[in-house]
């Protein structure tokens, strides 16, 4: 195995360590390859598979058939021995990026919104909140919207509004105080 492949695997391990939560494949690839140029897109996909095979990370199926990746004990141990092979500047960049974007990444993985065409010409919006690796939604709400534009707008607003809406429903329907 060449030096670059080893360092690239260490970068993935380092990202998972710094983000401190399981990441979907989409979130991990987007973070490492699309939003930042830490890894090549195709290399990232291949390295994830190799890291799972070597039991340095594991993947768990969660919502909607999505897979999430997280470090294993062996992965954490491996990283602790070899993290210095990742250039200091890159480690700092990854650390700063994960700190600054942790909440947005968490919301993108836990707050799910989609819409479909309904038979009557309206749109059925499905809004869900997932918790960590649990495949069953913690909260689900289905709403009809009269237009595609209103359905799209609702889906866009969901990430910001989901926590407050869930709190309101919980406090008013479930909480017995």
Tags for this model:
177 residues; alpha+beta; Arc Repressor Mutant, subunit A; three-stranded antiparallel β-sheet; 6 helices; elongated
Description:
The protein is of the alpha+beta class and 177 residues long. The chain has two domains: 3-107, Winged helix-like DNA-binding domain superfamily/Winged helix DNA-binding domain (Arc Repressor Mutant, subunit A); 110-174, no CATH class. It is 56% helix and 19% strand. The strands form two sheets. Strands 1-3-2 form a three-stranded antiparallel sheet. The longest helix is centred in the last third of the chain and has 27 residues, at 148-174.
Tell me the fraction of residues in β-strands, as a range.
15-25%
Mean pLDDT rating: 88
Query: How many DSSP E strands?
Result: 6
Envelope shape: elongated
Helix- and strand-based class?
Answer: alpha+beta
> What is the radius of gyration?
19 Å
Number of helices: 6
Distance between the termini: 61 Å
CATH class of the largest domain: Mainly Alpha
